[in-house]
Specification:
Oligomer: homotetramer
Largest sheet of chain A: none
Helix content of chain A: 55-70%
CATH topology of the largest domain in chain A: Four Helix Bundle (Hemerythrin (Met), subunit A)
Strand content of chain A: under 5%
Radius of gyration of chain A: 27 Å
CATH architecture of the largest domain in chain A: Up-down Bundle
CATH superfamily of the largest domain in chain A: Voltage-gated potassium channels. Chain C
Largest interface: A-C, 65 and 61 residues
Number of strands of chain A: 0
Structural class of chain A: mainly alpha
Shape of chain A: flat
Order of helices and strands of chain A: HHHHHHHHHHH
CATH class of the largest domain in chain A: Mainly Alpha
Chain lengths: 272, 272, 272, 272
């Protein structure tokens, strides 16, 4: 008894799923289209290439944009809750992938923004049967999500710190023609220093400025421990808690290792 | 039976608490005053803006300072232990927020220090109902406090190390016109290198100097593990203790390990 | 009854093992040959030395290459599964150690690549009775292997991020003659910034560019926590498993948790 | 009954111990002598100060050196095992603290090396009743000692890596006048890049060189996780194992928290 599948359902299967041959083919084509169009945007920015292949880059750009536009509307057409898709993370990325090209008809230069379509690759990865990779990815995402509040407080704290440190350095080095021309630039310098990036485009020249800079560096060197500690503690917790969901039928103890066959508390055999 | 509330108590409620409408309003106004006055100080330092809006910045500064001064004295007036407040962390910040403006009447330029009032934001955060954030923050603070002795020893060790390394580099590179003009500057360079900031304003030019610099870099790259390890181990320890929500029915003690069957304080059996 | 050992077996014993006097001698000679030839390649690149000792460097190079070539074929001759050796990690290193010298007969300059033979030292280390070091090394390798999927996802994520960030900075700073001449260079700059290396050969000069750069630095400062967290959690897991030395008297399984009372493999009670 | 104490024993008490008033006084005097002499060496290197206070610096130097020399011989005289002291860590530091001044009579400039006496501060710290700090310090030292083999392997691996990477970059950038003048300098650059220091005194200018540099940066950004992971895992292990040594008299369970009064396994009261 053959079930009838509507056109909408078939489109959905091809576009959103990857377990039918046509769905897989669609994803592979999409993957290469993204790679090609991103490469085109990158290489177009190199003057030597742009002079030689200008038309080729332009055609590639527009062909990809048209294909992505059709795909975008097919996605909206075929999905049951189009509004939810449109405002989802991937829905926004999909829209941002096509907008820059159209905007470039009005404002020149904006088509470079089309490079954001490189983020679409995240969704396409599943074609390559890397579900294990995806589960690892969602594991990382969960650990980051769970520690987002601690990280937010840390970032706010660092933000307030660099404002104060930037103003202090502006007072110390301000009149010395050493690059600390105003407080925003000094704050920029404080961030460059605290994160241990250290370009050297601006650097203190007075003894007092160098002393304060040293203190900022040591602070930055020390507090990098904080986000690391947060994420590590979170990952370590998940690593221990998530690995096993077995529960002993006798004593109900549930903190078993992955290779446990018997309850380590009462010796009861575990259902594997 | 209506309880009579003295003026002092009412002022206290408005200024120190945030659970009445007027208390909340007070905090919101304070929050925006701080933001505006900090922005004024930052933008005033940019010459282009200062030329155009000089008077506006000056008036903003003085209005905010007068409001903060009144608030500071109201805080002292309304609190039961004014001395304890004055010498508390927030009391000092509150005072430092108003002093620079008055000092600028005597010494020019000091009003830039008023930027320290950005630290007042820490207290105002509670308005936005982020108590969960605050508890996470105090969790971070506790972990940092508990490991402060280890971090202090680490900082002292690093301090002695950079003094020796700076002197060694001064001996090696000193006469080469390569920026290592004296030991304080060489110590500054050693800190820049050890913390992996690496401005490049001073860098070794002799083969021996580059060799020693390489060793310093590898040391710095290695010992960054130490503060990270300290904070992480501390966070992981706390992280474990906090997960359990059991509470002893006898003595109400609640800081139990996950696999505890009996209260570790009074020996009462725990309901699992 | 003396067992007859074929020439092939004796060669194998000398070349591949280090528990006979001749095998040990072979490894020590090989160790010094590698050190000498690597030093020759390094010092030859310094013009002052090359002018003085050119012939000496050339002879050293060719003597070592001939010895290594003979050794390479003796390894293939004496081993039972030559194909497996040829395509193993060390087999490829051994081949790459001799190829550059022969290639330099055709293409000048390639003999510098012979420096890759420094990697052969990894195998020679066992001569110095540092088996404990090797077991620690394999412990590190295992932890890195177990977390390779997480690290791969992290690297892919960082890769996509720097592409987008590089393009954004190219748009912001592109026309300012500040070094962001095209997107590939901007991506290079984004990597330099995100990894907190910060050469300063290219650095933003516009306020907006400095703001975006600050955001990139803070991201880089924050996400360095991720690989650290991954490796630490993995090492901590292994570290925990190794601390317990209990062994089941029934099934001899020995990888028990610290608080285990019964063998998790067979249910036998453990002697605590 | 008064015990007779020999002069040697009394000298030992004053010099090596800090629990008698005279012993404490000795340590405090020593502490300030070290601080003063180190400051003298540092400030003498600053030309402006040296011109003004040259004689003062010279006298300070020699007075401190003579006092330290007397102290060094008193230590040797009063201790029971002088040879063991002489070759101990502190014995070597004590000797190195006085040698540079005497050497400066023969070779000029060496007296700057006297700055190494700043390391003597480590021993003097105990005066300030910071035994808790010292126990924390020895805890850190133990964790570093236990992971020294892993760290050694890591450093050797990084060392071989930078040699290969330096040679590769020399081949790519060598002829471009971009600073990669020879392999030693390229290895120096590779270390500067891998450790994320990034001076910028040498930086790649060819597209291929920038690509390889990007790869090196990402490797450096990733493998910093390894030493961090090693130290953290070690600290976490000690942190858990060392905290408490109580053992239940009833069930012999010994993994108790520091504030436990009753066994969490069987409810037995613990001997505190």
């Amino acid at each position: 008894m053959k079930e009838k599948i509507s056109l909408r359902e078939r489109v959905h299967e091809v576009i959103f799923e990857a377990d039918t041959p046509s769905g897989k083919l669609f994803d592979v084509v999409l993957f290469w289209l993204i790679i090609i169009s991103v490469l085109a945007v990158i290489l177009e920015s190199v003057k030597a290439y742009d002079r030689q292949f200008h038309l080729f880059f332009k055609y590639t750009e527009w062909i990809v944009t048209v294909v992505f536009t059709i795909e975008y509307f097919l996605r909206i057409y075929s999905i049951k809750k189009p509004v939810k898709y449109i405002f989802s993370f991937y829905g926004i990325i999909d829209l941002l992938s096509i907008l820059p090209a159209y905007l470039s008809l009005i404002f020149s230069g904006t088509h470079t923004l089309a490079i954001i379509r490189v983020l679409r690759l995240f969704r396409i990865f599943r074609v390559f049967k890397i579900t294990r990779y995806l589960s690892e990815g969602s594991y990382l995402k969960k650990a980051l999500m769970d520690s987002r509040r601690k990280i937010f407080i840390f970032v706010v704290g660092v933000g307030l710190l660099v404002i104060v440190l930037g103003a202090v350095m502006y007072l110390i080095e301000g009149g010395q023609d050493s690059g600390f021309v105003n407080i925003p630039v000094s704050i920029y310098w404080a961030i460059v220093t605290l994160t241990t990036v250290g370009y050297g485009d601006i650097s203190p020249t007075t003894p007092l400025g160098q002393f304060v800079a040293s203190v900022i560096m040591l602070i930055g060197y020390g507090i990098i421990a904080v986000p690391t500690g947060i994420v590590t503690a979170e990952l370590a917790k998940h690593g221990t808690l998530n690995t096993n969901t077995q529960s002993c039928s006798n004593c109900n103890f549930s903190d078993h290792a992955d290779d446990a066959k018997f309850c380590k508390r009462c010796g009861e055999s575990l259902n594997l």
